[in-house]
Amino acid sequence: xxxxxxxxxxxxxxxxxxxxxDRDTVVFVHGAAMDHSVWxxxxxxxxxxxxxxxxxxxxxxxLSGGELLTDIESMAxxxxxxxxxxxxxxxxxxxxxxGALIALQAAAxxxxxxxxxxxxxxxxxxxxxxxxxxxIGFSYPMAVTPRLLEAARDxxxxxxxxxTQWSHASKIGGEPxxxxxxxxxxxxxxxxxxxxxxxADLSACNKYTGGEEAxxxxxxxxxxxxxxxxxxxPAKLAQSHADRHANADIVFLPDCGHSLLSExxxxxxxxxxxxxxxxxxx
Length: 282
Hints:
Elements: E1 2-5, E2 8-13, E3 25-29, H1 40-47, E4 52-56, H2 72-83, E5 91-96, H3 98-108, E6 130-136, H4 146-154, H5 156-167, H6 182-191, H7 197-207, H8 211-215, E7 222-227, H9 235-244, E8 248-253, H10 260-263, H11 265-279
Parallel strand pairs: 3-4, 3-5, 5-6, 6-7, 7-8
Antiparallel strand pairs: 1-2, 2-4
Helix pairs in contact: 1-11, 2-3, 4-5, 4-7, 5-6
């Protein structure tokens, strides 16, 4: 499905289904230098089990046009603009890594108009209620090492290699699907991303400072889903936020790192099914 915003054309995967106003909508937001395809296992399940789904390509990523956005707040504004154009009786936001920061900020601002610079003021407020928020591979602050930022700016393939190595619990073996090699797939996906995407995305994560304030405005149920062996977004940071939020659950998946969506696709789906199913509107 394609949506026009401010003369740019954006893509969201809906499994070929037209969103229906009588169904909850699950919105999936990818991480740095990724795209909608990282959610293939989870998004297809919800699409064929009674939900609208929208797995987005962020601006300048894969099938979406528009300029790369350089801060989390602008990405969150864009996301809310997009959601405002999707039918649905309630919204469930799901984000991974950078996408978790975007989902958090969008959730905090959910009922307010987005910036007029990113959408026409007449149609940029989400009217469906926010029903739940799932943050996968989340940490805040999401600091990025100077070495990785420099590589992202000057030598993107080196940055892809670092991110691939650091985000997997194991370089070989343990794949949930025979013949599937998660590190190689991740590297290939990042290597095909737009010029400048990895630096723009990592810089946005590194400079985002709105997380603490955003959490104070979250009223819906929250799920933190963490890899036990995550070296890029240490689970202890997610735990600290979960401990302070009355409506938060936290789940740890064993034997996987930051790339939960490929290292533990069934575990991620299981937890999302339980959480979103519990919070869905009857």
